[in-house]
Every structure is written in structure tokens, then in C-alpha cells.
Design goal:
Number of strands of chain A: 18
Largest sheet of chain A: 6 strands, mixed
Radius of gyration of chain A: 25 Å
Helix content of chain A: 40-55%
Shape of chain A: elongated
CATH topology of the largest domain in chain A: Rossmann fold
Structural class of chain A: alpha/beta
CATH class of the largest domain in chain A: Alpha Beta
CATH architecture of the largest domain in chain A: 3-Layer(aba) Sandwich
Strand order of the largest sheet of chain A: 8-10-9-11-12-13
Largest interface: A-B, 96 and 95 residues
Oligomer: homodimer
């Protein structure tokens, strides 16, 4: 892995940045601010033709003046200035770069020639680079985020390679709502040198990456993709969105990254052959990768459903069948055990519906254990994770009329059940997927998500993530 | 409408509540707290066999002692106590009720008999009621929320009739993330007397209701459903989720609301015949109803796409084609106009991709106007609504190194564009649907949503809402 050309790009001890200045309206300036604000631990060398200092750092007028060959150079420049700067960097001994600048292949013939020119320069100096026309990379554990998006991002286990920079950066706002975290994430742009296949190969070898998410507009090297992806999916799940298979998607992709897309059915076959799970939206892409990166694989498609409300029970059950998961009627023996813990209005046969809030240890600890012990059950779907939000809502309306115990006291009781709950997947070697209409403002939802048990915002989303787990389990076992 | 049996249930001048006490662990107590906490303007009469006061209100030992026949009675009692209390209420002249208590038809033969018994009592006294086994109703504009869920809910224009109480109450936590608001919402439970069809009829006649969302486990009166729904959908869009069409969904529904569900294809035909749009998840149900309640209908399926980032442009374009929307190449004349406003790296043909943040008046005002003026375009999809969140993120990392203008100054500039933007649908009589990875923490997203322009959390969701608008436009025009 350390020998891979992307390793040095993701773990540089020094970064030269070309395009940053003291002008906050420039993209390069925001990138430098973000690199510094994110507490990047290495050395940073701004390169600027006129300025003596940039954002308080000593600036170098050209790359040739750098005090050392930086491990990585980042170029955010007008298109026409890229070739000369790349040459200067090569002369100074820099061997890794990210070219953020756009205006190349994606804009037509002239841009295509310019792109060939910078590939030629890179070859001459042995420079390996990402881009052009990309947004950069993010390696949270290394405090490396030289993109122009200073959004919260905690280390996680989903590796990303994307032909859209937005899906590496701006999507962090969406991912933060569930704390889906990157191991490492690449925006590959036009992929003139290092491309999607290189990123897959690298993420495949990265021990922090437990699942790989791909956003694809077109694959330049389909044979290589199949060769590398087939190998990686033997060990790690991969999910891909492909948007180039429709007329409008292909047209958009061509003008975005200059990608030559292909017919949808060809990509479908290519994914199938490579063991890659296909998703059709970016939400699904990340949400499925989250489950795949976090949970043990089910041995089969027999699911148990557990809730305290009937609507979500029915939605989960219906969605299971729609996505080819079974919801078997529990054995008489199992139902008898469950019945002892349920109110008279509850239903025991699967879905199990408690019908209203009772002892949280029943919902989160006792029932799941009884159910997951049954060898006929391969996984558990549960709706209704909830802690502080309901209590606080009640406290708000009740406070003038009733004495309310402090929340911390209540929390103590049900959090021991929560702690048992999040250990279930490891304890039984079976996946548990949750859903709740609350988000991380609720402490129970936040706790579950932080303990790597995916909790989705709606029941049907939980089912689709579970279906992805089943699909990958079958890919792994060669079914 | 005022003659409809549901009118008095939703607009009562006085409510008798049976099952509330001074014990906060009782469901009825929380319901009463919620009614009072929500500033319900009418009189409230707690009925309790022992207590003299309940939550500070004078309590009545039986319904027969009520000082007046309350407009509405709410019963949250052990199952076996319901018949006698209902009889007492009838004796006192009460003619509308909501029976929250479960343990009836949904639990088997004995419960079914009990349900028949309360129907008989109601008939004898002329009582019309919702339930049993329901969670109640919400009428935000009337400050009526006697459910046990004190969640934020502002008045809106989506009417709801649901066989799940969770999808009327707990789902408010999800709906609050986009401020989807109810006109009036019904949990119908077992529908022993007033049922889904009655609710549709009532919502059809309610002027505040612009679209109707249905969650269905089984329809008891299919002929009446078709008759009423066919009439209502001539004027108002309806969206339905049906979960009883799979083996597991049917089993879950039977134990939830005692519903007799039917084969999926029969319900599909029933919806088609009635002009009802079918959704397959509760998120879609509410999100589509939101668009249908808020926007003018498109005249055709030709969509324009506008963004400042290429990934979402391609996702929008691809999703359009997948959901049978066209993304036509703009005319040369239109492209020439657009080109004048775009940077060299931008693409003009549709999708229009600005490639990076420029003048917000271009993205939100000038380009949309030029595009929507074109008679060949029926609607606009736009990704990238963003205000305070990006600015504040930048300010956070920049503050120690650069002087940052106060946000209010920046906001002033782009909010005039925002104001023009939200007026587009009315100005051009064409739908505009937005998406953003930010939520309401961002002031631009909150503003757009508050001005009834739906802004979804991901591009593909915006497309599906637009597709629902097209579907309803075709239903209305008889295509």
C-alpha cells in the first residue's frame, strides 16, 4: 500500500499549494485555509508569483524556489498556467500532484490537447497526479482536507472514489446527519493520469477502508476495472452509482468530466461481473456502504422485525418482501418466549410489535437476544430508537403541571439497554439495522450511530441497506 | 364541509377526555398535557372515576356528570372499559368520539366481538367515531393535537389519512426537517365507524388541504374508495402508500389494524382507476404530497436542469430519464442567451452547470428566468441552494488569518436573488423543485422551504417529486 502512487498523495509530509493568495474570493485561498484550519500536521508551502507571504506563511515565487521537493503539489490555477507550473514542480523534484483546475477535456478539442500536454509533462518528470478538473481528496485520520469545503468529517470506514467533487465534499453536509465517515476519499475529475481504477486498487489495500463507494460517469479502462474490482470485492464490498447510462445522463457526464459513458446494460453487466452492488442514488450509495462497512454479513435472507409501532412494522415487512427478503413466521417455541415479554395487544409472530413504549430493556435487549439466538433468523430490523427527544418533548409540555424526573436519571435506566443493543451484531455475528424518525439530536440515535450500528431515517431505507448486505453476502459466497 | 361528521371532531369547542389522570406514565395523561400545552382554545373536561382534579382541571367522575355534552370525547382506556364509557357519553348527549384504546379486531375473535359491540352502542346513540386502536388527530391551525406526541407541527397544506398513528405523529420529527405541514391529519386505526374513505371525502372538501397523503393497510370499502377518490382527484392530488400487497406486509397489517388486505395488483388497479399516485415509502409519500400541494402543474415532461456542480447535474439528468422525464437540449437561441452569463468552463446545453459559485443572482434569478420563459421547457430542477452554512464554515477557518465581512452584509446581496427565486413558480406557472445537501440550519434552504418551494435533501428526490407532478398533471388532463 505504501508503494502505491496514491499513498504519498494521501499521506504527504509536505504540501506545495499553487493558486492560494491573500484574496478570500479565490478557490485556492479557501483550500489553503481549510488545510490549515483542519490541523494538517505537515509543512505547507504556498507558491505565488508576487506575494511574499500568503495567509501568514512564507510564499515562494516559483516551484523552483521550494526549500524541498514537496511530497504533494496542489494546483488551482487558470487552465493555461497549469503546464508551466507542472514543469517547474517536476524540475524541483515534486512527484505527486492534484490538479484542481478545470477547462481541459471536458470543454472540447482544445482542452483535450491541453490535457494531453500536461499528461506528457507529468510522464517526463515521473509525476503521478489526480485530476484535472477535480476537487481534491480528504483523509480525515491524517487531517488532510485541501478541498474548498471546510465541512465536519470524522474518520470512518467508507472509502470513496468519485467522478464528482461534490459527492466527496458538499455531500459531507448530508453525511454528517448520520455520521457516515470516510476512511479516505478521492475526487478523480477527468482521471487523466490516476483514475477510478487506481483509487479502487488503493482503497482495496487500505486497512481502514471496510467498504468502497463509487460515483461513476464513465469508465475509461473497463477491463482493468473488472480485473481490479473483482479482486477487491472478494474481500471488501463495493457499491456504485452509474449515471451515464441514459441519454441525458451521458450528455451531462460528457460536459462534466469529459467521460465517455456506455449503455446502461453494459455497465450493469460490468458491475455484476465484478461483484459490485449497483445503487441508483447518492443517498443509497453512502447509506448502503455504511451498513456494509459496519456490520457482519447475514447467512441468509430471513429477517426478524421488531418495533413498538404497527405502521413501521408493516412498512418494514412490505419493503422486505419487495427487496426479496423473507419475514418468516417465528416458530411456536420462539413465539412462546416472546409472548412472555409482550403486552396483550402486542403481536409475536414476526413482525413483533410491542404496540407502545414499555420497558426499553425489552425492546432493545431481551427481545433481540431471544430472536437472534434462533438459528432460523439471519438478521434483525428494528424501528423506533429514541431517547432524549421524546422525553424532552413531554417535559416541555408537562413542566408547569407535573413534577418531572431529571432526564439523566431516566437515561441511566435505558442506556444500559442501549449498550447491550449496540453489541448485538458482534455477539451474534448477525446484522442489526435500525431506523428512527429522529436524528442525532436524539441521544439514543446518536449513540447507536456512533457505535457503528447504522440507524436510518425511515424504515424502508433500513430494509434497502439490509438487502445490500444480503446481496454482498451472496457475492462473497459465489451464489 | 361543516356538515361532515369529521368536522366536529376536528373543530370541537369542548373536549371530554377519558383516561387522563395525574400519573405521567399513562398515555391519556400525556394526551391531555399535549392538548393543553398546544394551546387548544376550547373547554377541556377530564373524566376520572376517583380524582377530583386532573392536571389542575376539575375532573368528572363519569360522563353523565359533564356540565354539557362535549363536542368530542377522547377515550384512552383499557379495552374492556370502552363500551360502558361510550354508553355513558351517549347518554349525556356526546355525539363524536375518538377511541384510542386498542385490543379490538386486530387481536382476534374476542376483540372483533367487542368492536362490534362498541359500533352497536355508537349507532344507538348516533355517535360517530374514529378508531378504535388509533392515535388521534392533529389540526395545527385549530391548535388541536390530543395525541401523545408533542412534536412541533406548523399548519400546512398536506391532508393526511393514515392507518398508522406513527405516520401521523412520530413522523412529525422527520417532517420537521423540511417543514412539511399538515392541514389536518387523521389516524383512523381499525376504522370501525368513520374510515379512510370518510377522511378522504372530508379532506377533499377542506379548502386548506391542497394535496392528500394516504397510508393504507387495507381498504374495507373499495367501491366507495373509488367513487370518492375519483371525484377528489379531479381537483386535488392524492398519493398513497399501500403495504398490504406482499405476504409479510399483509400479515403485519392484519395484526396491526385487523385489515383485510388484497393482492398488490388489485390495489394498483384501484389506485389507477381513482387517479391516485402510488408511492412505495413514507418519505416519498410526504415529499411528493409536499410538491403536489405547493407547485403549479407542468404542461409536459420537458425539464431544465441548473446547478453549479457537475455531479448533481448528472444525477438529476440521469434520474429524469429513469423517471420518464425529458431533458431536451436547449435551442441555439436559448443557449446563446445562457452563454453570456456563464464562465468559460460552464455548460449551456441542459443541464446548465455553472461549475462553481458565481454571482447568486445568475444561479437563482437570471438563468431561471431565461430558461422558464422558453415555452419548450415545462419545469426546472435546481441543485445547490445554499446560504449561511458555507459562509459560516469558511468564516470559521478563516477568522484568525483574514478579515471576514459580517454575514448579514453578504446575506443582503444574495437574498434579493432568493426572493426572486421563490416567486418563479407563480410568475411562470411552472414548477421549480430544488435540492441541497444542507438542511434548515442553512438560512437559504429554510427560506425556500418556508416560501412553499420544496427543497429536497438529494437531487434524485427532487426528480421523483417532479415526476409525481407530471403524473398528476396527466391524471388531471385525462391522459
Amino acid at each position: 500500500m505504501t508503494q502505491h502512487p496514491l499513498y504519498q498523495i494521501m499521506n504527504p509530509h509536505s504540501v506545495a499549494i499553487v493558486g492560494a493568495s491573500n484574496d478570500l474570493t479565490k478557490m485556492g485561498t479557501i483550500q489553503l485555509l481549510n488545510l490549515l484550519g483542519g490541523k494538517y500536521p505537515g509543512k505547507v508551502y504556498p507558491i505565488h508569483p508576487q506575494e511574499e507571504t500568503v495567509l501568514g506563511l512564507k510564499a515562494y515565487h516559483t516551484a523552483r524556489e521550494l526549500p524541498e521537493p514537496a511530497d504533494l503539489a496542489i494546483l488551482t490555477l487558470p487552465t493555461s498556467a497549469v503546464p508551466e507550473v507542472l514543469r517547474d514542480l517536476g524540475e524541483r523534484g515534486v512527484r505527486r500532484a492534484i490538479v484542481i483546475s478545470g477547462g481541459f477535456k471536458e470543454t472540447g478539442e482544445k482542452g483535450r490537447e491541453l490535457e494531453e500536454q500536461i499528461v506528457g509533462i507529468a510522464r517526463r518528470y515521473g509525476i503521478r497526479f489526480l485530476g484535472p478538473n477535480c476537487i481534491g481528496v480528504i483523509h480525515p485520520a491524517f487531517h488532510l482536507n485541501p478541498t474548498m469545503f471546510p465541512y465536519p468529517h470524522q474518520p470512518g470506514s467508507v472509502g470513496v472514489a468519485s467522478q464528482s467533487g461534490t459527492y466527496v465534499t458538499q455531500i459531507l453536509r448530508l453525511l454528517a446527519k448520520t455520521q457516515i465517515g470516510y476512511s479516505q476519499a478521492f475526487s478523480v475529475g477527468n482521471g487523466a493520469d490516476l483514475d477510478l481504477v487506481d483509487c479502487i486498487e488503493y482503497l482495496g489495500s487500505d486497512p481502514q477502508t471496510k467498504a468502497i463507494a463509487l460515483y461513476i460517469e464513465g469508465i475509461k479502462r473497463p477491463r482493468e476495472f473488472i480485473r481490479v474490482a473483482s479482486r477487491v470485492t472478494l474481500e471488501k464490498p463495493m457499491v456504485a452509482v452509474y449515471v451515464g447510462g441514459t441519454e441525458a445522463g451521458a450528455r451531462s457526464s460528457a460536459s462534466h468530466t469529459g467521460s465517455l459513458s456506455g449503455p446502461d446494460h453494459l455497465y450493469d453487466a460490468l458491475f455484476r461481473q465484478s461483484g459490485v452492488i449497483r445503487a441508483y442514488s447518492v443517498e443509497d450509495l453512502y447509506e448502503w456502504a455504511w451498513a456494509l462497512a459496519s456490520l457482519p454479513l447475514p447467512r441468509g435472507r430471513n429477517m426478524a422485525i421488531l418495533t413498538h409501532s404497527g405502521g413501521p412494522a408493516s412498512s418494514l415487512a412490505d419493503a422486505c418482501n419487495r427487496f426479496d427478503l423473507n419475514v418468516p413466521v417465528f416458530s411456536e417455541r420462539l413465539q412462546a418466549k416472546i409472548r412472555q415479554l409482550l403486552p396483550a395487544t402486542g403481536s409475536t409472530c414476526n413482525p413483533v410489535d410491542l404496540t407502545f413504549f414499555i420497558d426499553m430493556t425489552v425492546l432493545l435487549e431481551k427481545l433481540p437476544q431471544i430472536i437472534l439466538e434462533d438459528p432460523a433468523i439471519d438478521g434483525l430490523l428494528i424501528h423506533g430508537i429514541q431517547g432524549s427527544s421524546y422525553f424532552r418533548s413531554i417535559a416541555e409540555i408537562a413542566k408547569t403541571r407535573v413534577k418531572i424526573p431529571p432526564y439523566e436519571k431516566v437515561k441511566k435506566i435505558f442506556f444500559s439497554a442501549m449498550e447491550a443493543f449496540v453489541r448485538l451484531p458482534e455477539k451474534y455475528g448477525k446484522p442489526v439495522v435500525a431506523s428512527a424518525f429522529d436524528d442525532r439530536e436524539d441521544d439514543a440515535v446518536a449513540f447507536v450511530q456512533d457505535q457503528s450500528l447504522p440507524c436510518y431515517r425511515a424504515p424502508e431505507r433500513a430494509v434497502r441497506a439490509m438487502a445490500a448486505l444480503c446481496q454482498y453476502a451472496e457475492i462473497r459466497s459465489g451464489k
